[in-house]
Specification:
homodimer; 240 residues; alpha+beta; Arc Repressor Mutant, subunit A; six-stranded antiparallel sheet; two-stranded antiparallel sheet; 32% strand; globular; DNA-binding
Chain lengths: 240, 240
DNA sequence: AAGTGGTCTAGACCACATT
DNA sequence: ATGTGGTCTAGACCACTTA
């Protein structure tokens, strides 16, 4: 007889602590109770609790410091649990542009995008065109397709617009955490919309980044195409 | 009094096991002795030994399977300890091109590259031009600058050539493991050498990838510029 | 049934930051 | 001096694979 539903204690503890953090019981920058108190609360040993906290540390939800305590990490688009901001200026400092949404609509996606989101081409996705702005200059021209499947039914229908920081929004509103993404980089020549919005010349090549974002269950959440003037801004990556 | 040289037992154990793996005592695909035997050998408890093995698992040197045992992972360029191969063909399967070195020489690097390698512009680096070939087609045009600093003195002087799989070579010959890298992606128009070697038209943009590779001590080892026809081949990345 | 890694405990002691 | 997280132990039991 195979037990199919065995969940280790430390994972149950970990998930419960995580849900309490996300629910706001311990806001960012506050301290969690110490190991012994938490272990007592959950009725487990210090070692078991610690193993749960270690995983939360690896996943960047908390930061532990010997002698001090366990601190809840901030959750926003630029924090380490969303390592998806990869833009740098010429001084090599990370930049966080603001976003302007030009258009949103519900539509049936192109076939190749439906495939990537693993949905039927007849399903409707939320489509958005956005530009990203820094110091008054448009630096990024973006199109975004939001899959219906990870969200509760009719969510997209009722979404009239998207906030600037979408990943934090998915997490806070729907508990959907973007845990990883696959990006493909392509060099392209600008189209009409790029030339206008990014203020580039027709013969200046752009970096096009196509990103599929996945939640913790490996369900595709979003497909995003970004075009950047890579002479002006650096798109950088750390591999390890 | 501050102990500055405190090294946890589990790290000592881990490093010793790793050095034994790299020395070839346990070749790839073979089983390590089980936890209790190893713990006994090192004179530590099962828990301490396990913590060392857990880190080696995270770093992909070994693979552990419940009920089976602990297996040594293969070490070559394409294995998971070198996650630096990011090329895919149109069928979305990873490709591993072969390499042809066109030229190597010792020279003083350009200032901006010396900066990135954190060496003096008067230091001499090994410079190589290489192309990478798949199915008879050149798909990648590459320049490579190898820093002298992580290597023993005069190593570069005596290196007449570079093998195809340089990262595995650094590890095997000098114990230098490339642990992470920073990549910057730029869209460029092809130069004369690109047009010839990659067989592209002058108006077809290329993806240029500039990579700085670091060893475990965060010392820059290599600076590499690769140019790819990104219409033909996909350059992909996983973020998490 | 035997052997492996995975989980869990209860308790001790160490290193570090703060008071 | 106190309280925190970090290391370490010795032993028990569980889940999984293979024979």
């Amino acid at each position: 007889m195979k037990k199919i539903n065995f969940i280790p204690l430390y994972l149950q503890v970990k998930n419960d602590i995580l849900s309490r953090i996300l629910a706001g019981e311990w806001p960012p920058h506050t301290f969690l109770p110490n190991e012994f108190v938490l272990a007592e609360q959950y009725g487990v040993s210090q070692g078991t609790l610690r193993k749960g906290l270690e995983e939360l540390t690896l996943e960047k939800y908390i930061v532990r410091a010997q002698g001090k305590g366990t601190i809840v990490a901030p959750i926003d688009e630029t924090s380490s649990i969303f390592p998806f901001y990869l833009l740098y200026d010429k001084n090599n400092t990370r930049i966080f542009p603001s976003t302007e949404t030009l258009k949103t609509e519900l539509l049936s996606p192109p076939v190749h995008i439906a495939e990537k989101l693993r949905i039927k081409p007849t399903d409707s996705v939320m489509f958005a065109e956005r530009i990203r702005i820094l110091n008054g200059k448009t630096m990024l021209n973006e199109a975004l397709y939001l899959s219906p499947s990870p969200f509760p039914p009719d969510t997209l229908k009722n979404l009239k617009t998207l906030p600037n920081t979408v990943y934090a929004f998915y997490l806070k509103e729907f508990g959907i955490r973007i845990s990883h993404a696959i990006e493909q980089m392509i060099a392209v020549m600008p189209d009409e919309s790029d030339i206008q919005r990014l203020n580039v010349k027709p013969n200046e090549p752009l970096l096009m980044v196509c990103r599929i974002s996945y939640d913790v269950n490996k369900i595709p959440v979003e497909y995003r195409i970004s075009k950047i003037n890579s002479q002006e801004y650096a798109y950088k990556f750390k591999i390890n």
